[in-house]
Design goal:
Blueprint lengths: L7 E6 L17 E2 L2 E2 H11 L4 E6 L3 H11 L4 E4 L6 H14 L6 E5 L6 H12 L20 E4 L5 E5 L2
Parallel strand pairs: 1-4, 1-6, 4-5
Antiparallel strand pairs: 2-3, 7-8
Length: 164
């Protein structure tokens, strides 16, 4: 079997997304071209060959679960009871996978980000061809961006993430 089919895709969808300024709609449930962002994202991960999806939910969990389950009933969910940030959400997911006895690779993604399947495939292929413990992908910083920042050392290695 190929790397993608053996990789668990953990989708972080625990935080509400204050930048979206909605009290009743989770940021991953906003529609893009008539499909919720998280559904479009899972569509892309499936097209890249991924088959196992674990979605971390928290705020507005019922809405996220209903949205994902309608289009992707094979997805499973784990609840982050207190919104303690991205790192904590990742820990919640890893603990759930470990409790299931999962020992494979993990692709950790944000539920509101859309990515092309060929980019996911290249990332997975690149990772499989290394001895790295982790690969981090980023987008270039823009002046108007309100997203967090990956901090690099002088050799270009990621050393931290800072929220804006």
């Amino acid at each position: 079997m190929d790397t993608a089919s053996q990789t668990a895709c953990v989708i972080l969808a625990g935080g509400r997304g204050s930048r979206m300024a909605s009290k009743d709609r989770h940021k991953v449930c906003f529609r893009i071209a008539d499909r919720p962002a998280i559904v479009r994202a899972i569509d892309a991960y499936k097209a890249a060959g991924l088959r196992r999806f674990l979605v971390v939910v928290g705020q507005l969990a019922e809405q996220v679960i209903a949205t994902v389950s309608e289009a992707h009933p094979e997805a499973t969910f784990v609840y982050q009871s207190k919104p303690k940030g991205t790192g904590h959400a990742a820990q919640v997911a890893v603990s759930a996978l470990a409790a299931e006895g999962f020992r494979g690779d993990v692709l950790l993604v944000m539920g509101d980000k859309i990515i092309r399947p060929n980019v996911v495939r290249r990332l997975l292929d690149q990772f499989a061809g290394t001895l790295a413990d982790m690969i981090v992908t980023t987008l270039p910083k823009t002046d108007r961006s309100s997203a967090g920042r990956v901090v690099l050392d002088d050799d270009g290695r990621a050393v931290g993430i800072v929220e804006v």
